[in-house]
Amino acid sequence: MKKLSKVVFVGMVVATNAMAEVDLNVGGKGAIYYQTNNSNNNNFLSQENSSANVGLQLDLKSDLGNGFGLGYQETFLGTLGLEKSMVSNVRQHVSKDDLNAHSMTKLYVTKVIDNTQLKLGRQELPKSLSPLAFSESWNVFKNTFDAMLIVNQDIVDTTLVGAYVSGSNHHDSLATFNDLSANSATLGNGKGTFTSGAYMLTIVNKSIDKLPITASYYALKDIANLKSGSAVWLDIKANQMPVKFAFQVGQIDPSNHLKETTAFGAKFFTNVEDVALSLAYSFVNDGDVSLQNVGTGVKTPLYTQMIGNQNFISSNSDSVVLKGSIKLPMGRIIAQYDITKDNSSSKNNYQELDLIYKFNALGTNMLLAYIGQKTNNKTFSSLSANSTNNLRFWTRYNF
Fold it and tell me: To the nearest whole number, what is the mean pLDDT of the chain?
């Protein structure tokens, strides 16, 4: 992010008509994102099975003095006309009526008081501090939340985080901020909403050497317009041993005569020079709420989360993921394989194979990935309703 000294910053950004002389930091990112698949008897690269975006995000940050700060982000998403010949859809948009449009995705004020920081407004929420309402990074740009956040570090080796999250945009539409949505499976057959938002308290403690512990509690208000509910999540990592391990456990309790959802997971991982290996397991019971991100209803906080398996691992399932990666001169190759057992009566077992190459070229960060998905013991190569092969490519430049 680059700094412009003594620039004139228009007070419209902070909802006033005044002019202020401030120091302004300017940065952002540009992105090109493309995905194609071979489902429905179409080939890779066919217009019918392909989607794409070009995007630009402009980030502005300013120190207003006296411990106050200001952040603003404008997001531009377009297609460069690719929908006329190469693709049939977009990955993200900010206006369904205009494929080339822009929207304000961040606007927040910060205040630092000794060891406490306040952040009020439209912002990203990291999964490390908010495991059930977090900004997802897998699409063109991250989704954001309307939130009030307070972070305190007065206690030695301890970080306290409190938040009220009132609304969010969605990973595929960054323009409209709505009430937090009930996730895909199933409050009232998917009709429920968290209409009053969520209150969160997270404690991160590192007083036990090499064993950080993160615990989160959520009070979820007016689920499906019935009683309020709650959620808890605990994550423990031992990441300084030769064979490292992590453990997670949590529960979402709708408290409205629906069955609570309970989940736990474990992960073992190690690094030997340029090679990394891991083995992860997760279990989710048959509760009435799927264990997915509140506000977007897409990804999970589970260790077994891969590129496309979230709808299969987030409810009534056992999942095992084996992952390996190797560092190369230009980047890293990653291979991961998921076997998920569906414990419901439908027995819709799932497997996924991801082959990913992350690398740097032309001064940008790039990703090229193959995502093979199949259910009910079909082969990855078969073209049917039970099997899909995807190719994903993106390139991003941060400035």
Answer: 86
Decide if 57 contacts 76 (C-beta within 8 A): yes
Distance between CA atoms of residues 59 and 28, nearest Å: 5
Q: Please give the pLDDT value at position 284.
A: 97
As to burial, measured by CB atoms within 10 angstroms (0-12 exposed, 13-18 middle, 19+ buried), residue 6 is: exposed
Rounded mean pLDDT, 291-310: 90
**Could you identify the residue written with the tokens 């895909």?**
184
What range defines the domain where residue 244 resides?
2-398
In this structure, the strands spanning 158-170 and 19-37 are unpaired
pTM of the complete model: 0.87
Q: How many residues appear in the chain?
A: 399
CATH of the domain at 172: 2.40.160.10
Tell me, what's the pLDDT at 62? 95
Count the domains in the chain: 1
Q: Kindly state the tokens that stand for 349.
A: 């077992």
Residue 105's SS3 state is: strand
